[in-house]
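Hi R.,

As promised, here are both runs. First protein below:
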Amino acid sequence: MDFMVIKIIIRIVLDILSTSFITKYDNLPSIIFRFMMWCKRLNRHVTMEHIDREGYRFSYFSRGKPGPQPSILMLHGFSVNKDVWLDTLKHLPEDLHVVCVDMPGHGNTTRFLQESYTAASQAKRIHQFVEWTGLNKNPFHLVGMSMGGMVAGLYAADYPSEICALSLLCPAGLRYPTESEFFVRLKELMFSKDPSDSTLVSVNEKEGEKLLQLCLYDPSFVKTQLLKGHLDDQRPYKMFFVNCFLDVSSAQSRYSLHENMRRIQTPTQIIWGRHDKVFDSSGADILATAIPNSQVHLLEKCGHFLALERPRKAAQLLLKFHNSFCDNTGNEPDEELNASYVKSEKHQE
């Protein structure tokens, strides 16, 4: 069957699924979501891979082959997996070598409940992955989103010789004067739950839906269900994600990027959804002030999950920045992007 036909069928099915239908047939959305991801991987021509060393497995997919242009390594955020980059990959050249890895404990990468998942510990694990795959034979472009952005920032600070460019997409790990709407609501739920309830946060379906909608600028049914699909796919590993969340948000890890941002000397691109309700977009100014060779792009009509809401624009910015700082083909660097600080990007797609 033609792939476009498959996509149309899937879209129609998602559009006709009402909330009550999803509740009644709980496994069906998960099946549809996994089928969608399978189709997207086929369409993006990615190669599914894994590497095993010392009793540990990293799961990842790649596209393209290492060449004169530096490779790109992409790190996703908390509780999702490498598939969250598939929409962004659609708008990147297929001959560009791109690697998307499942973060420690996420997706099909090994998860140990007893292991530390602080940002620093995850950065060390990612360095293992880079060494095992030989990605650091030449400096590469590191991209991180949300929790992955915090880890990417620490990686750039700890292993500066391995990175030619750094892109931080709405990263976690910064200290703000006030808490975001998302975390205010999360705390309300944590403190309102029954003392006998041992779960980290106890929410009903309605409250869960509201939290998801805070992650998106346009919380339409389809986008909300897509985000829900990414999260629900990890549901069997709930206990791990509780431990991971506690480690990442612990006192020693919570502000890791803020505490190390002045150590970052790599040319850095900062992309943020202007309407991010999880990590406020004012974090872009905090980073730009601390990192000497940095530039900022604020995306209009975009919330926290910009890889889902603005994948094309994100890809365009990533590629332009990559070519500017990582071009080994003899082309002249892009003067616009080599400016030390670009205050705001307001162009619409």
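And here is the second one, sequence first, then its structure tokens:
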Amino acid sequence: MATKQRPYHLVVLGASGFTGQFVAEEVAREQVATGQSPRLPWAVAGRSGEKLKRVLERAALKLGRPTLSSEVGIIICDVTNPASLDEMAKQSSVVLNCVGPYRFYGEPVVKACVENGTSCVDICGEPQFLELMYWKYHEKAAEKGAYIIGSSGFDSIPADLGVIYTKNKMNGTLTAVESFLTVHSGPEGLCIHDGTWKSAVYGFGDQSNLKKLRKESNLKPVPVVGPKLKRRWPVSYCRELSSYAVPFLGADVSVVKRTQRYLHEDLEQSPVQYAAYINVGGITSVIKLMFAGLFFLFFVKFGIGRQLLIKIDGSSFTLRFFGQGYSQGFGPEKGKPNIRICTQVKGPEAGYAATSIAMVQAAVTLLNDASDLPKTGGVFTPGAAFFRTKLIDRLNQRGIEFSVISSSEV
């Protein structure tokens, strides 16, 4: 319940930014969908009251809700002003942080939320930032009862929860999964998620810092169950999908591995090996991709043509998972994996539509499934925080659909 101390259940920080507008609109939809009375109390936050007001007016027009602007709070704050972030955090149960790139602007928000016992979700796709926040704030967040959940958008809820879904649907022990992302372009052409692309570029450029951070953390290797998952070539052919694939450079692998470490070390579950790829089609597409990479890098580097690169209507994604493991009563000591499973997660345009749905449902899950979250707060991956909750059911109801394609003993 909202209280005088915390009048809002949710606050969308950075609501006037490109992604923030979609997230604010999705919260407004959720407010109606739940049919709660009184309606879910929420607010938008950012530097400009005028811009925030315009965001609410546009959402009101789009959703046919003329009174929306008067129902939603407006909080003025700035990521460069810690006192303003404290004031914002004190007023909310959960903050949805849309202010990126997170490596530049994310930490002050995490700090304010942790210190004020406020939970926070973000849509970061930058492994170095995500892992650094764990080492810096996990213990303090646990002490304050705040749940800090990174990568709660298209990076990396479909992948992280998809592996958990696959594990739950296998009649035995899942030992390894490969995922293949297919992006279906709408009538206007291919959809490029500018934020994900920038995150991939930043992540790629930050590899040395990430390696250093992991070396300093001195973590024990997670055990490998069954045969070691072989890494594919930089361009490989996926027979099951009749398509060429390249490694996926987003945060998915980092996030899934951290979830599997948590499930193994804290809950003694059998860990799953994971690798992520993106389908690029036939050999002509592979050649195009090599040139396109330079083209997109140019656009991201100089910050031009952003609108040109974002085509949302009619776009969608499919993430297919191919898993292997052992049936009950059968294990690595008896030979090769003897069971295979194929599952998929599919949904609307990845960068903005699916990201907004995933982020808002993650926040709603923090509000509504408190008894199914980890016992204490902390900095968690989506899979570690939500594996016992109803998040997958909520996503299914909102158009991000999880399903089993096939399952068979070999």
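A quick note on the second one: DSSP finds 16 helices and 14 strands in the chain. Let me know what you think.

Best,
J.
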